[in-house]
Amino acid sequence: MASKQKDMRRLDLAIPYVDPPKNKDDADMSGAMSSTMPMAAMFTRNRMIGWVSFVFSLQSWLGESPEQKKNASTPAYMSVLMSLMALVVTYFPIFMPPPAGQSNPVATPSPSP
Residue 63 gets which letter from DSSP? Predict the structure, then answer.
């Protein structure tokens, strides 16, 4: 059982926490990631990268501060639209598969006589 001693801490000596000021030169990594990940998903046609880019860009759009909105070169909803386009590109072959004759672009050599 805890002993019943008087609390010796003094509230008048407590110093409240204050966030350090943000540096203006810090790079916006979330903006850079949310704009490059959809391109990586489209180039590699990787669906997992497409979904990660969609979730990441949606989080960066919803967590955008007014200062980031003011300083951004493009609006954050454009990265969400870009990631949706990446998802469309990665799932496009399921709905419209390539023609059967063009599935193998490498020409096979004909047998020699």
Answer: T
Left, alpha or beta for 74 (phi > 0: left; psi -120 to 50: alpha)? Answer: beta
Residue-wise pLDDT tens digits, 68-95: 888 878 888 899 999 999 999 999 988 8
Instruction: Judge whether 111 lies within some domain.
Output: no
- pLDDT, tens digit (0-9, with 9 covering 90-100), for 55-70: 999 998 898 888 888 8
113 occurs within a structural domain:
no
* Prediction pTM value: 0.63
With tokens 């490059």, the residue in question is: 36
Domain coverage including residue 43? 30-93
Instruction: Look at residue 17 and tell me if it is in a domain.
Output: no
The whole-angstrom separation of Cα 62 and Cα 76 is 9
42 within a domain of the structure (yes/no): yes
d(CA 82, CA 77): 9
Q: How many domains does the chain have?
A: 1
